[in-house]
Predict the structure.
Amino acid sequence: VNPDTFVCRKAPTTFRVINNYPNPSLAYKWSVLGLPNSTDPSPYTIRATAFGNFNQNYVIIYNGNEYCPDTIRLNQNIRVGGPQLNYSTDTSFCTNNNFVITNTSTPHLASDTIKSWRWTFGIPGLVDTAYQPAVFVYSAEGYYPITLIAKDKKACIDTLIKNIYVKESPFLRIFPRTAQLCFGQTITLTGYHTDTMVWSPASLVNCATCDTTFATPLNSTKIYAIASNANCSLKDSSIITVYKPFIATATPNMLYACLNEKVNVTIRPANKKILWSPNFGLSSTSNYNPVITVLKDTNYLVTLTDSLGCYSSDATVKIRAYPQPIVNAGPDRVLSYNSPFTISPVYSGDVTNYLWTPSNNLSCSNCPKPNGNADTSRTFVISASNSNNCTAKDTIKIMIECAYANLYMASAFSPDNIQVKKYYYPQTRGIKMINRFAVFNRYGEVIYEIKNAAPNVRYNGWDGKFKGVEQITGGYVYMLDATCEKGETLSKKGSFLLIR
């Protein structure tokens, strides 16, 4: 017998023979969990070493020469699982170089997810709990144990240790580490080192093996120094930025635009210090693509300078402002329904083109003074332009007067007859908002009500039902409160007939 059906690899498990012979001289031969045969007595405790499902576990019992051996088999499978740990890394490398580990560990079965990782590197206090540990650098020579401990969801824990040897790298420091030069200038580079050192690329320096050398790079570049000893090499670098002459450009550099119009200009090259003179009308004085509001004829001078102050260059942007036309459409007007009107705006003398929107119900869309009939309230927009295509706009509102004569309530309706109105609703002119429209039955109950509704929408009317029930033929009362387009209020009540 064995109490376990699952065992973590490297964990103990015990096999035992029950109802055994009462012979203290019994001999055993165990064959369990894929381990080498053992002659240990019962109970037999071992540690599982191999992953897998084991269903051929047995023990042979020898009770003496006068008895045949007995073979007893375990009547259950035992699965051995847990983390399968493995990782790769160089077994020897140099100080001050990146130490990289690649974790290739997996659970024996995918379902036995590994829940935690713990890496130690032989350095006190240095611990990493990520699946893939972070890159770091050993600073001292010596032997270091790399230990990985993992635990899966079944609480199986395993440990893998590999030893590495870290060799001492040579010392190397370059000065300066970064530098900025104007084109054609020379820089002095110094390497402090042990052992031997060489500069690279050798074509950029005057002496590739000297501790101190000189360079006159024509472009921004990185110059390396490599120091070497018997076991290791170490590289250091100096990043050199070279500022070259440049020419500032403006695109476009000449603009014609209407007063108050917004235009775009692009200045190149970018990534320079920029100075605008004058600086009015600009969306930003530090932008290479500003939006310029045209306020008057202006000549802008744009100066670009590199960050080291080696070189600067100027560009000009000339803007010529066209005058804006003037248009005044006049005050808003309130008229009787269907009465004729003429709109007579005041224009400046340079206006050459006219455009009215909307143009329906006007005698023309491109004339200075159109005529029309006031059949509904409308707001008309006049766009007036001059020969330079500069445009000015103004609006005028023609409103229908708010009067009871412009409010119509039918005396009857039939929701069942397609030849008759199927909704009972107010039909208006000069009304901006139906504040409240309500219908009452003969008992004074409100059977339909709507508030703050748009006028002349028939679906906002009553359909002849109350709580989904069709109402009977007969007389009903309505009440209406409305707001006119100029803000005054209008109220009306009356009766009507529902016909079925």
Summary: The CA atoms of residues 241 and 394 lie 58 Å apart.
